[in-house]
Design a protein that fits this description.
The protein is an alpha/beta fold and about 250 residues long. It is built from 12 helices and 7 strands. The chain has a 7-stranded parallel sheet. Helix 5 packs across helix 7 and helix 7 runs parallel beside helix 8. The longest helix has 18 residues.
Amino acid sequence: MVAGKSPPRKPLLLNGTLETLTKLVNEFNEAKLDPNVDVVIAPPAIYIIPLQKLARKEISVAAQNAHQLASGAYTGEISLHQLKDLNLPWVILGHSERRTLFHESDELIATKTAASLKVGIDVIFCIGENLEERETNKTTEVVTRQLAALAAVISEADWKHIVVAYEPVWAIGTGKVATPQQAQDTHADIRKYLASKVSQKVADETRIIYGGSVAAKNAKELASCPDIDGFLVGGASLKPEFVEIINANSAAKL
């Protein structure tokens, strides 16, 4: 880890039924977890309240998405103000599936993020390139464009409420994973962008986590990279190996 930084955050995306998720969170509660790691779970919206009540105090709960406006005729949406009513500390915004399947633009995601910070909810801000962009060497161009949209609408002080999640779209749920060097290189580029366009302080202090087929078998090596501060975990969070992933940071130091 980068010296002087706060503990890394490892959000876990949870999908399933209330029964299966209750069982899983009970396992989380009983597991021995690295005390230097912040664990954030993100269940489907309808299960936020029961799992928030169930999770032990060291485990925070996040929403997987939210609408940027406080009220209006937006049937089916959940507002940031409603999440704040639940005392939810985190929301995930800009996940690749929101960008691709729901056509959320860089500007919309940035607007959502700024609105979330105004309400008092910290943001796991997702960025990443698709396979074509990776193969045409546009990765840095894509992630810096996505970051630039956010930098245009928040202040330097706001960045302390942001965790950047780099998730190469081509590696999500495919079994493919960026090599540790590929991931490290992009994380370093993200940090370089923050240093040049925001401030060195923000670059040094912002957590940048990796998401993309993270599993127990690759977590330790990824965690050993200097600019990778944690993970955004999908399918592997529904398996017993989740504990190994959460504890990968301490394992990488052995």
